Amino acid sequence: RRGRRSADAVRPAAAPQRRPSAAEQAGRAERAAFEQALETLVEAGDRADAAVAVLCIGVDQFQLLNETYGDETGDGVLDELGRRIAAAGGPRAATARTGGTEFLLAVPGGIDAARTLAVSLLARLGEAIDVEHHTGLRVGCSIGIACYPAHGARPLLVAHATMAMRAARQAGGGAHAEFEIQMREDQREQAALARDLRLAIQR
């Protein structure tokens, strides 16, 4: 018994779990609200036999801007981009900022309307931004599109739009791309290659 008490006495205390920051908590709440709004749009689309589009907008090479002008200016740029995205979506749209430099936009409409919106968004987001004493700042964006029901069930829309956005970015950025089944296969292959590489390094 003494030995057991002694072992317990020297056992290190469990490390306290890190509490999510206020920004992380706000991001989670924003994403949850977006998912609920997307569900409402899809349900309305089902009743009207209409499509719903999800656009994932990613800011290209944002780290360079952040390193050049600082975090506060970078945050100001992201805030302005968020306002422009919300304005472009209209009153029935759902928006959210996720992943720090990525945004989600859900709107009623099919692929043709989504393409038109993506083109206009790329132009609007590429316009100059003034933040405090920095004027004329410009960023490029890549946009991925996934439509319900053509590109999958509602729970898959965000993931598919994100895959399409990354495909647009890998192709050079500053453009939009639509989800294709091959993107999912490519992602699986990349994940398998990364896993094999980790195992090879461990050996």
Key traits:
alpha+beta, 7 strands, five-stranded mixed beta sheet, 20% strand, 203 residues
Extended strand count: 7
Which residues form runs of ≥5 with pLDDT under 50?
A: none
Strand order of the largest sheet: 2-3-1-6-7
Oligomer: single chain
End-to-end Cα distance:
42 Å
Radius of gyration: 21 Å
Largest beta-sheet characterization? 5 strands, mixed
The helix/strand class is alpha+beta
Outline: globular
Kindly estimate the percentage of residues that lie in beta strands according to DSSP.
Answer: 15-25%
Q: Average pLDDT value? A: 87
The run of helices and strands is HHEHHEEHEEEHEH
Assign a percent range to the helix content: 55-70%
Count of helix runs: 7
How do the helices and strands line up, and which of them pair or pack?
Layout: H1 2-10, H2 22-48, E1 52-60, H3 62-69, H4 71-89, E2 94-98, E3 102-108, H5 111-125, E4 129-131, E5 134-137, E6 140-148, H6 154-170, E7 176-178, H7 181-202
Parallel strand pairs: 6-7
Antiparallel strand pairs: 1-3, 1-6, 2-3, 4-5
Description:
- 58% of the residues lie in helices and 20% in strands.
- By secondary structure, the protein is of the alpha+beta class.
- The strands form two sheets. The protein has a five-stranded mixed β-sheet with strand order 2-3-1-6-7, sandwiched between helices. The chain has a two-stranded antiparallel sheet with strand order 4-5.
- α3 packs across α4 (71-89).
- It is globular.
- The model has no long low-confidence stretch (mean pLDDT 87).
